[in-house]
Amino acid sequence: MMALVDAGIPVGLVASDRPDAPGLAWAKDRGIATIALSPRGIGKAAYEAQVDAALREAGCEVVALAGYMRLLSDAFVGRWRDRIVNIHPSLLPKYKGLDTHARAIAAGDTVAGCSVHVVTEELDAGALLGQAEVPVLPGDGPDTLAARVLEAEHRLYPRVLKEFASR
């Protein structure tokens, strides 16, 4: 999210399911509207309805997921059809879901990377909008590979999101 803002992407709302997320304070300091809402105790449908209402009230046209680690319901995805994008830390369709860096290393991959894709009801399966490759170096562990992939994400996501939003 910070890389998107720093790249000049207009951000109408920063939403988090963790009220203590550092990005919320960072966004507030820059005058960006925020919402922090925990889904605990209210249920997924009610939680997503409040997030949806906040996005619409803020005038958002595209939802850019950045570090959002929850599965969105089919209903939420349907309401925002073809307007939700996500950055994923693998070269999709490889390694959907979690633990992508450890899985790439365990498989003996020499190249890893990240992908920006349209969010659909199927996990990490939407249309690919862009990818960036990162070499897997000898001695890499999940953390060192993740750090290099994150740098690539910060370059790729703003560029692809600008292209996507201008369509």
Explain the overall architecture:
It is built from six helices and six strands. The protein has 167 residues and is α/β, with parallel strands linked by helices. α4 links the parallel β3 and β4. α5 crosses α6. The longest helix has 24 residues. The protein is globular and about 50 Å long. The model has no long low-confidence stretch (mean pLDDT 96).
Approximate helicity band: 25-40%
Radius of gyration: 16 Å
Distance between the termini: 21 Å
Q: Which oligomeric state applies?
A: single chain
**What's the β-strand tally?**
6
Secondary-structure element order, N to C:
HEHEHEHEHEEH
Characterize the main sheet.
Answer: 4 strands, mixed
Please state the average pLDDT score. Answer: 96
| Beta-strand percent range | 15-25%
Low-confidence stretches: none
What structural class do the secondary elements suggest?
A: alpha/beta
The 3D shape can be described as globular
Helix tally?
A: 6
- In the sheet with the most strands, the strands line up as 3-4-5-6
